[in-house]
Amino acid sequence: MPFTDLGLDELIGYHPESTDPRDFDEFWRRTLDEARSHSGAVKAERVTAQYGLRTVDVDDVRFPGWNGEPVAAWLLRPRGVDGPLPVVVTCIGYSGGRGLPTDQLLWSAAGYAQLVVDSRGQGRDTPDHGMGDGTQWVEGFMTKGIDSPENHYYRRLITDCVRAVDAVAELPGLDGNRIVVTGGSQGGGLALAVAGLSGDRVAAVMPDVPFLCHFREATQIAEEGPYLEIVTYLRRHSQHRVRQTFATLDYFDGVNFARRATAPALFSVGLMDPVCPPRTVYAAFNSYAGEDRTMTVWPFADHGGGYGANPPTQLSWLLDRGLAPER
């Protein structure tokens, strides 16, 4: 597989023009205020025994997300540790959900608590009721409700992920001052959005090969993956929808969230990634507002990034920033 994008020197200096909507901040303030106006407690049920785990406790969690609708999550933590524990809020990649708790044992093995957030409509435990807008969209989620930012699918999913950070305060044994948000691909884009919308409540963010960044360029150069859903939609519905489509997507672009995020950030990029081309990742990284930002470059990696080499990099980076669990 060849390199799919610019050379590394060009990527390091890549700064896209701003596509920041004038009312971006007001849109998200109104969206989150509305979500938080719905009452509903965070609920957690201990289910460890169902999974045969001896060193990790598992809670099946429900917290109020978009429109107060219940969002499923797993809470995993090392057994016998009282805390308060630093917590890793994990957002999930495209077309996946929270899966099984046995899929997510790394962070509890390292001494962290972990909140694994289901993706509405993608995971099996959190349905997406949508907005009933009647918009035509191709298979997938990228163009669902793309007629306006109010209707778009990612307004709901991003809101859910921000509300997951809110839910940490209602779960016992977690340290609300040490919340780390992470995820790969779609999860990385969601983590960036949460960092941009949650202010200093997020202590660190780790977006791996992040999706949902620099839409206008990504749709022109991505060779595989969900960006092509947008291309298919515009091909089917002709040129007259191009302007409105990208005007909607600007409200969900990781580049615009990065401009508002200040927590220490550890990005990663694969220079042979055909799904999230390196230029789109560097667009967010180079726009990031926080001074403490680091890029892990995997020169010969595809969309899998660093694969098994990435977690040790993350653990070391968190340790250096005082975000490791006490021993």
Automatic annotation (TrEMBL):
SUPFAM superfamilies: alpha/beta-Hydrolases. It is an enzyme of class 3 (hydrolase). GO terms for molecular function: cephalosporin-C deacetylase activity. The active site is at S185 (nucleophile), D273 (charge relay system), H303 (charge relay system). Keywords: Hydrolase. This is Cephalosporin-C deacetylase. Its EC number is 3.1.1.41. PANTHER family: CEPHALOSPORIN-C DEACETYLASE. It comes from the Bacteria. Transmembrane segments: none annotated. Substrate binds at Y94. Residues 1-318 form the Acetyl xylan esterase domain. Pfam families: AXE1. One of its GO terms (biological process) is polysaccharide metabolic process. InterPro entries: AB_hydrolase_fold, AXE1_dom, CE7.
